[in-house]
Specification:
Mean pLDDT: 96
Helix content: 40-55%
CATH topology: TIM Barrel
Radius of gyration: 17 Å
Distance between the termini: 31 Å
Number of helices: 10
Oligomer: single chain
Number of domains: 1
Largest sheet: 6 strands, parallel
Shape: globular
CATH superfamily: Dihydropteroate synthase-like
Number of strands: 8
Bound molecules: 6-hydroxymethylpterin-diphosphate
Strand order of the largest sheet: 1-2-3-4-5-6
Low-confidence stretches: none
């Protein structure tokens, strides 16, 4: 899943795609590099990010969605607002990726009435405050329990399980230790029975581990994506599609070899 943030303030690509032609060029490049899905975001969720109105978010997301919807690559929209969900689904989005797991009033109903794919992500707190003092007694158990409840709420609303992917939400109300515990125990999330999406690309935990600024985290991001897929992730949400693709080709070849051996 290749990331295109049409925002002034995203932590990694903020401001790069505000011009519609630049946004299209980024999206086309990610497709050429091998993205299977494009994830378009119009609201930054980095720690401390400002709120964005429905009208503003739609004015950022819709032109790119309309430009890219006939490329054959499914478009995911990263949003938490039911009004935005409704509008982008009407304009051809295939997936709603919600870092707030459809907790906004009305959001669950909007996706349940459509046939879109859904990503439910875990976050502790809200972007404004989430990194202030994250606390868990058992991060893996609590995050898995939350995702299971949200998944079951969708099933109760009549959504088929094949439409739902889960995401532990790396960096969303989590310390480095929490993030590492989640990555080490990714199998617990796989055992919930849904495809697993993991987003570690260029995130601050990689900065903490490597002491590198955000534009020098490609190598650590590729390593993180590879480790996530090895532990069962089915979708990796990344900025650096070409580099991630190459790494995953090596893993795929190795898996093919191992299957041939057994
Ligand atoms: N991370 C970000 C945004 N959306 N969605 C899912 N499902 N999982 C994630 O880990 C995730 C996400 C944050 O990264 P980015 O979009 O690069 O930055 P920003 O939120 O500042 O736009």
């Amino acid at each position: 899943m290749g990331i295109v943030n049409v925002t002034p303030d995203s932590f990694s690509d903020g401001g790069e795609n505000l011009d519609p032609a630049a946004a299209r060029a980024t999206a086309q490049r990610l497709i050429q590099e091998g993205a299977d899905i494009l994830d378009i975001g119009g609201e930054s969720t980095r720690p401390g990010a400002a709120d964005v109105s429905v009208a503003e978010e739609l004015s950022r997301v819709l032109p790119l969605l309309v430009a890219m919807r006939d490329t054959g690559v499914p478009i995911s929209v990263d949003t938490s607002k039911p009004e935005v969900m409704h509008a982008v689904l009407a304009e051809g989005a295939s997936i709603i990726n919600d870092v707030r797991a459809l907790q906004a009033p009305g959001a669950l109903g909007v996706v349940a009435r459509s046939d879109c794919g859904i990503v439910l992500m875990h976050m502790q707190g809200s972007p404004r405050t989430m990194q202030a003092k994250p606390h868990y007694d058992d991060v893996v158990r609590e995050v898995a329990a939350f995702l299971q409840v949200r998944r079951d709420d969708l099933l109760a609303a009549g959504v088929k399980p094949t439409r739902i992917a889960l995401d532990p939400g790396f960096g969303f109300g989590k310390t480095l230790a929490h993030n590492l515990a989640l990555l080490a125990d990714l199998g617990r999330f796989v055992s919930l029975g849904q495809p697993l999406l993991v987003g570690l690309s260029r995130k601050s935990m990689l900065g903490q581990l490597t002491d590198r600024p955000v534009d020098h985290r490609v190598h650590s991001s590729v390593a993180a994506a590879l480790l996530a897929v090895e532990r069962g992730a089915t979708i990796v949400r990344v900025h650096d599609v070409a580099a991630t693709r190459d790494a995953l080709r090596v893993l795929t070849a190795l898996r093919g070899q191992e299957e041939g051996d057994s």
